[in-house]
User: What shape does this take?
Amino acid sequence: MKRLILPLTLLVLGFSLSACKYNSPSGPSSNSKNTFTAVLLPANEVPAVVGAEATGSGTATITLNLTKDSNGYVTAATVDFSVTVTGFPNGTALTGAHIHGGAAGTNGGILISTGLAPGDVSFPTGAGSFSRTGITTTVDQANAIIANPGSFYFNIHTAANSGGVARGQLIAQ
Assistant: This one.
């Protein structure tokens, strides 16, 4: 009998340690990225942009940087933005850049701002790029974008087109 107690004890102890390693709520977390693009066009704005700035266009790459718990649930998120534009009038200056909630053809409120302030970015030749990284967002906002990216859009704003000068719906990559 004594010969069985030690092996059984070791066996039970081994299973217990194994269970703690894999089922602990404070188990290993992981990081992942979800990338989205948007083709920015003045014609996509509602209403469509007219005038000198209607000739511009651009692209935006938006990366959600996600921290996930051991169960795969998102526990934290940040956003990186990389935007390139061309065809705008010389000296065009941005006043803002944001992700908004809204399907194509509808306007929606700002969901995530790049933090861009008026005058932070200008394009002396009507073309150029800018980026913003590490913008904090909520887990709910990140999950909503991942679940249905087409119901969100990214746009840039100028003084002449304060409601938006070029816009594109998010497309998962």
In short: The domain at 25-172 is CATH 2.60.40 (Immunoglobulin-like).
